[in-house]
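Input/output pair, single chain:
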Amino acid sequence: MTYIYNFADVQTGDVAVAGGKGVGLGNLVRAGLPVPPGFVLTTGAYEAFVEANGIQARIQELAALHSEATPQDYEDASAAIRALFTGGTMPAAIAYELAAAYEGLRADDDRADDVDARDDVDRDDGVPVAVRSSATAEDLASASFAGQQETYLNVRGAEALDAAVIDCWSSLWTARAMAYRDREGIAPGDVRLAVAVQRMVEAEAAGVMFTANPANGRRDQIVISAAWGLGESVVSGTVTTDDLVVEAGTGRVLSRRTADKEVMTVYADRVAEGETADHEAEEQGGTTEQPVPAALRKRAVLDDGAAAALARYGSRISDYFGTPQDIEWARADGNFFMLQSRPITALPEPVADTPDTWPLPYPKGLYFRASIVEQLPDPLSPLFADLIDGSVTRSLKTLMNEAVGSDVVRDGDVGLPTINGYAYYYYRTAAMWRVMGKAPAAMVALARGKAHMGMDGWREFSHPRYKQVLKDWSAKSMGERSGEELLEGVRTLLDAGTVYYTAVESVIPIAATSEISFRAYYDKLIRRAGDPPAETFLLGYDSEPIRAEKSLYDLAAWAREVEGLAPAILNQPTPALAESQRSWLPPAGIDPALWQQWHPRFQAHLDRFGHAVYNLDFASPVPADDPSALLDTVKFYLRGQGNDPHERQRLSAARREDQTERMLSRLGQTRLGRSRRVPFIRLLRWAQKSAPIREDALADVGLAWPLIRRMLLEVGQRLVYSGVITGPADVFWLRQQELQSAVEFGLAAPQPPGTAEPPAPVAVAITGAARPVRADVVEERKMLWRGQAKAAAPQLLPETRWMKRTFESMMPARSQDQPGDVIKGVGASAGRVSAPARILGGPQDFGQMVPGEVLVARITTPAWTSLFAMASAVVTDVGGPLSHSSIVAREYGIPAVLGTGVATQRLTSGQQITVDGDAGTVTVEHPPA
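Output:
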């Protein structure tokens, strides 16, 4: 049997024989990279050693630790297993092949012209080699085993090599490696160890190189760490390194930090004159540390040219493997050598730099993050940004012209541009004064219901019209429509949604005015000490978000009555349930008969309530697309957690009616009371009527969003077949003109009926390209978006003293300049709670919510309502006392502090905070010292 493979002979599929590291070295050699010569001692040698010494059964026995094993249990098992190896004897056949391969490295160096290498070989104890583990589960993209087995450097002589190999084998059973494999579910019997033996480079400098930036995930940045001497100390982190970031495409050094390098790792037998050697290490080969010469301590290990040259090797390796790599390198006599390469594990998605300046696209104007922008808390996707700007402009201009005259809003006066990806309402300065001058006339128009404004206009015109447009475009099958028709449908539906939202914005001030008026009248002229707060008279009414919550609760109650259904739902991962809901097929492990009962009932809920938007940007899925958040709420109720919303509403309504009756009775007892009774009743009925309509109106803003998303994803799927983009959802990251051009070119046209189906079911496709033609630009835009999402967008631009003094009090968020442990906002629901914070960026994070935590978000919409059942309090960056968050928080009886401006930036998940809804503050709590 052959136990030795030269690096060049190791193939990509040889992981079971040569281990991950051995395969990586083989690939590097075949790719033509400069790799020091060496060979792999295969896993067959490990198995032969274990069998020859009769230790396999004992290893498995010792390694089979129970699930509650302690770190000391692992240490004890490791010591016992490693003793089995050190007490063993190397089989003669393995020793013979190992010695012959080692002698081959000496012969290679004898033929070389490298004088320094010949000097090393001429020593009696042989050529210096590195002996490294190469486990069958190591250095794979799915797991990070780096450093979990041991490496032996500067090993010289056949006898020392035998000993190092046995020690390397035994390091498969270190306590750390065993514990890690147990956590990853890798059984003890599933691992073997090959050993990579490699001629050492007597490096003047060495280090590691990541071909993607592990800090921000960017694939266009290469990160290099460099130190003097050998590189093992860089890998282990025992020396201070120079750190550089290099632009992959150009080799330009983007940043560098040159360290004061105090120590370096060298061969134990190469200690500088005057330094103290480790004599035991010197006799056995090995390495040691010595001080860096004074002239080199603060000198850069790599100048810009050397860094660029090394980065080019990194790009070659990354391109060859097709995935970002973690590379160990060395430099000797000015030449670079690649020592090993493995995939980078747990690499984050690439993130661009967070913007810190906010340039204005139109200098002579005012910019506000308010109104519809409150429903757009994140940077916009490119396609939505392009389409919504014109749609909002048309809608607002039409409304204002119908309400107060055609000369108020002119072309170019208003818009919804983006700055660093964030949407802003833009008003040309002159237009702002014209609009403000017409404010009294606009209020009169609103009161009279002109331009279909107000509650009657919403009920009788805007809402029915929106539903009719949706019905018209739902009539025809998606697959039957051309690309042009689908794009026209998207624009028409978006315009209908924008017009509808503009109408809703005329409902909001009526609802707000009614509550403010009632609250002011009650607090100033009616309320006495001991009387309930004004919101008591406004709670307990039905609205669309409350109806959606009750629907989920009823669904859970029904599921508990169906034998076997509740545990089946609870035992399934939420993503599997969501995917099966889309496909109609039952998830593995659920009885199809149970699924046939569950699926249509849950689908009926989605059909009625699944259009509620988390975020107006149609790139964000709605519950109809991804019901994961709703399924988690159903599970919450199935576990018996949360309160019955029917009972909560009944109690609120009973308390409301009881207090109303008591108040009216009291007002009828005096002359002054009787004079105030009629206005009290009128204001109360106005507020009670308006608030639920406001919630109903907001809940249906996204009525067309499921269809818009299906249309765009249909176009996206056709563009995937056509070779334009990588996945259907990438359509959201195209610009409007790019999408329009692709459609006009026929790249989104369905295959004509009656023709044979080609490999790609589209009429026209781009062929011959290695990647979809817009793949790179889509990835760049996603990267830019992730960086923008970390920014705190100013509420007002330009950030002048005049702007803040004039408009800041009108904005839905407080100032972002709030240092210290107390964050101020608006107290929107009374109460005081101390609990851990949970920062949620959107529905993709909802699964992280733990009952009893404080929900912290930029903003909440009606689609977030299901989370309020789990939350102990609510904190938002944007919002006020009459926003959706406040209304729902009061229904649930939990504290709410809204409009903080900075909560999601300043707080972290798990951090203990105190939310005081009466004071309008959020306080960061620190554990006692």
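The first strand starts at residue 4 and ends at 6. Residues 112-124, 138-147, 272-283 have pLDDT under 50 and may be disordered.
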